[in-house]
User: Fold this.
Amino acid sequence: MDKHTVLVTGGAGFIGSHACVELLQAGFNVVVVDNLSNSKLESLKRVEQITGKTLQFYQADIRDKTALTDIFAKESIATVIHFAGLKAVGESCEQPLNYYHNNVYGTLVLLEAMSEANVKQLVFSSSATVYQPSETGQYSESLPLGAINPYGRSKVMVEDILRDVAAVDKIKPNGAPWKVALLRYFNPIGAHESGMIGEDPNGIPNNLMPYVSQVAIGNLKQLSVYGNDYATPDGTGIRDYIHVVDLVKGHIKAIEAIESDKFSGGGCKAYNLGTGKGYSVLDIVNTFEAVTGRKILYQFAPRRAGDLAECFANPALADKELNWIADKDLEDMIADTWNWQVKNPQGYVD
Ligand SMILES: NC(=O)c1ccc[n+]([C@@H]2O[C@H](COP(=O)([O-])OP(=O)(O)OC[C@H]3O[C@@H](n4cnc5c(N)ncnc54)[C@H](O)[C@@H]3O)[C@@H](O)[C@H]2O)c1
Assistant:
């Protein structure tokens, strides 16, 4: 297959930068659009150092239609991977308008620009938060949607928009149909094995792994474990952690599927990207200590509103239809997180 040009929105961010490495290494040309609201240009410089290849960067907001139209006119883009957006659940409850504006309105502008440029292949960063909470803790793509916070609802809204757009096009016989893969991520952690790119949250991290790793390096004093009375073996919450490199490889598989017979005639399909295995907060702390030899100070704190006891993927559909399966285990994820943290104790410094 002749590799083509992929536009990566949010490409300077945590997952986007890892996707750029995999895309460049797989032979795609890469164009990034990012407003750098939650990332630094340094991440893209490091992508170029890791791969020995160059990419085209545009600093722009996806809500800026003129900027997007210009990019589509200049670059011959075949596929878009859409990572750009805001992602903190807690912040989304405090700033719902900002979240809907960025995540929903931003996607509408992107889709209009794509449509006008006749670019209709899209891989979208969705999330496990789209699912209605289920008793079993395990989520298959066929389970009902029903997010419980504005961030999750912004993802459901975008999924709905994409299903609608693809459905209309399917019944219109003329022109290329939309081909859309909705990738529902579970909990991406880890970093590239080089330790040159990784997760670099602004301020105090919201997610468990960067928090643990900053406690280990001494930037933060101790971890608060929210809830130790869940109905799980050790009482703490269980999540499905997935190595970010495995996750981004799923995007390449999605592009391959979109360009194969599987998407002939177009359509919009959702896939879980997770390992299918759950680990508790204390599993993470204990494994982190074992892998790194560092002590993680922690204290128990009350449950947080909206947190579920258990959440892990049924990843069988991605295996069957995308030929994708996660490869790296928890030890790999922690070793790579720690390698990045030790080499970049203050994250990226521009
Ligand atoms: N990290 C996770 O735990 C997780 C889980 C599920 C889904 N996701 C989704 O994956 C995507 C990427 O997440 P991430 O962890 O890499 O986040 P990130 O914040 O590191 O990356 C997002 C990037 O998008 C950019 N951006 C934000 N709004 C923009 C806008 N309006 N215009 C242009 N650029 C903009 C930011 O500057 C940043 O570089 C997001 O859509 C997120 O919702 C992330």
Summary: Residues 5-190+240-273 form a domain with the Rossmann fold fold (CATH 3.40.50.720). The radius of gyration is 20 Å. The first helix runs from residue 14 to 25. The chain has two domains: 5-190+240-273, 208-239+276-343.
